[in-house]
Amino acid sequence: MGLFSRKDKDKEPKVKVNKSLIKAQAIVDAIGKDNFITIDNCASRLRLTLKDNKSVDDAKIKAAGTFGLVRLGDSALQIVIGGDVEHVTNEVRNLVEHK
């Protein structure tokens, strides 16, 4: 038996973590807040139009838990997020103030 009883563990405060916000903040930091033109999504990807998609820090975006990136031309960028893409998109919009 450990130092804490089951009753003590149930009293520990539960901290709710907004994983979508954490992922969105990492994405905005990697891209640059002033680099965004449009923010949209499909079923699994965050679809962005940027002023310059070459200045994006790919490693930071991948470290945030994304599944990959796709560059289309010089300005379009798609980030593969998965099923929670809509939540991440909303958080990115809030962070860069695109409504």
TrEMBL record:
<dbReference type="InterPro" id="IPR036878">
    <property type="entry name" value="Glu_permease_IIB"/>
</dbReference>
<dbReference type="GO" id="GO:0016301">
    <property type="term" value="F:kinase activity"/>
</dbReference>
<dbReference type="GO" id="GO:0005886">
    <property type="term" value="C:plasma membrane"/>
</dbReference>
<keyword id="KW-0808">Transferase</keyword>
<dbReference type="GO" id="GO:0015764">
    <property type="term" value="P:N-acetylglucosamine transport"/>
</dbReference>
<feature type="active site" description="Phosphocysteine intermediate; for EIIB activity">
    <location>
        <position position="42"/>
    </location>
</feature>
<keyword id="KW-0762">Sugar transport</keyword>
<keyword id="KW-0418">Kinase</keyword>
<dbReference type="InterPro" id="IPR050429">
    <property type="entry name" value="PTS_Glucose_EIICBA"/>
</dbReference>
<dbReference type="GO" id="GO:0008982">
    <property type="term" value="F:protein-N(PI)-phosphohistidine-sugar phosphotransferase activity"/>
</dbReference>
<dbReference type="GO" id="GO:0090563">
    <property type="term" value="F:protein-phosphocysteine-sugar phosphotransferase activity"/>
</dbReference>
<dbReference type="InterPro" id="IPR001996">
    <property type="entry name" value="PTS_IIB_1"/>
</dbReference>
<keyword id="KW-0598">Phosphotransferase system</keyword>
<protein>
    <submittedName>
        <fullName>PTS system, N-acetylglucosamine-specific IIBC component</fullName>
    </submittedName>
</protein>
<dbReference type="Pfam" id="PF00367">
    <property type="entry name" value="PTS_EIIB"/>
</dbReference>
<dbReference type="GO" id="GO:0009401">
    <property type="term" value="P:phosphoenolpyruvate-dependent sugar phosphotransferase system"/>
</dbReference>
<keyword id="KW-0813">Transport</keyword>
<dbReference type="InterPro" id="IPR018113">
    <property type="entry name" value="PTrfase_EIIB_Cys"/>
</dbReference>
<feature type="domain" description="PTS EIIB type-1">
    <location>
        <begin position="20"/>
        <end position="99"/>
    </location>
</feature>
